[in-house]
Amino acid sequence: MMTSAALERILRSSLPARRRRTVSGAGLVDASVLVPVLLHDEEPLLLFTRRTDRVETHKGQISFPGGVMDTVDADVVATALRETHEELGIEPAFVEPLGLLDDLATPTGFRITPVVGILRNLPLYVPNTEEVEEVFEAPVSALLNPGICSSEILVLGGVTRQVWSYAYGRHRIWGATAFILRNLLSLATTSLREQA
Question: Which terminus of the chain, N or C, has less C-beta within 10 A?
Fold first, then answer.
């Protein structure tokens, strides 16, 4: 099992040092999400939401909190923190941003930049019921189980893509969220192997 202390150490050293993949392209809408790492007791957890059927895009899907960049946002970190507060009521002061994962261009026309942030205490969630149907946490150790991860080749928006999926309990984490999750877990396990 990966401990909270080990994951925090890995993220603090690896995120700033890595060369991340960026996405360029005209017509993409800039957005960012927060990848909330909850340093809970010994075992770290990741925080997810399930979107309502009333949102404009990605209805009913599992996601990290986030959204489109606004003119009031100084950068992608500010966007991720603002959106997390709007969706879940988590104050930006409770989140310590550590760095960015790889950008992702979605078939729906967004350029998503994932911001990894740690929370030391489990927050009290106040979900925005227009956007968030459910909030849940998943232990990193469960998400590292290779038996829950699969992929398939799909044609989305006229582009052939490898689409990853994680089966966690009754939830199916797929698409952009699974891509971001895979990026985070890969970073963690690669760092562990290098330290061994």
Answer: C
Write down the H helix ranges in the chain: 4-17, 76-88, 140-143, 175-195
Instruction: Enter the CATH code of domain 4-144.
Output: 3.90.79.10
Residue 19: which residues within 8 A CB-CB, separation 6 or more? none
Q: Residues with Cβ < 8 Å from 169, sequence gap 6 or more?
A: none
**What gap in Å lies between CA 88 and CA 113, rounded to an integer?**
19
Residue 20 and residue 30: Cα distance in Å, rounded? Answer: 17
CA atoms within 13 A on the CB side of 37: 32
The whole-angstrom separation of Cα 176 and Cα 2 is 24
Token pair listed for 5: 């202390």
> Hey, where are the domains in the chain?
4-144
- Locate 50 and state its tokens: 């399930």
Distance, C-alpha 54 to centroid of its chain: 21
Q: pLDDT per residue over 1-43, tens digit each?
A: 789 999 999 999 999 988 999 998 888 999 999 999 999 888 9
Over its C-alpha atoms, the chain yields an Rg (Å, rounded) of 16
In which element (H, E) is residue 153 found?
strand 149-156
Is the pTM for the entire model greater than 0.90? yes
